Amino acid sequence: MSTFSLICTEEHEAALRAALFETAGVEGAAYVLFKEARIGADPWDRRAHTKLLVLDVIPIVPMSASAKHVTWDTKTFVALLQRSQKDELVIGIAHSHTGTLEDFSSQDDDNEAELFRTAATRNGAEAKLVSMLFCAKGHIRARVWQYPKHKTMARAVTVIGERIQIH
Q: What does the CA dihedral 146, 151, 156, 159 come to, rounded to 10 degrees?
């Protein structure tokens, strides 16, 4: 089994933060498309490792949003699944938590499992779903779904620009 890390530029991080925190005190969401780079054996620990490089950020217009939830129409998700399969990309979802919760919630687990099932049904057994969480205190967490009831936390989320930030 592979470990994962995510890499994005400062510009992509800024686009994500703008989409996710557009309205103060209200959760936001965006789709993210990644290019995948697989390493058969990491030189440090000899384990398979996958780096997911952010290529595109697509803001989501919510149907409903508050300090504790965000919902949207998933028609765009299905269209992005088609693009991700054609262009050999990995689809992801990013969302924010506005309060003190610094981790994925059980509601996040349920919603992402359903999105992953849709991705796997549409794009096949090799499909993945990346989930990024932007916390109010500035932290970024990420995980990758490869199986319906299993997600793997990313080793790190690295933001590259004038300086390098590792979350």
A: 60
Give residue-wise pLDDT tens across range 40-83: 988 888 899 999 999 999 999 888 888 888 888 888 999 999 99
Tokens of 78: 């299905």
HEC string of 51-70 equals: EEEEEEEEECCCCEECCCCE
Specify whether the backbone of 138 is left (phi greater than 0), alpha (psi in -120 to 50) or beta: left
Query: Whole-model pTM?
Result: 0.93
**For residue 48, which phi and psi values (nearest 5 degrees)?**
-60, 140
Note whether 30 and 75 are within 8 A (CB): no
Q: Are 143 and 6 in contact (CB under 8 A)?
A: no
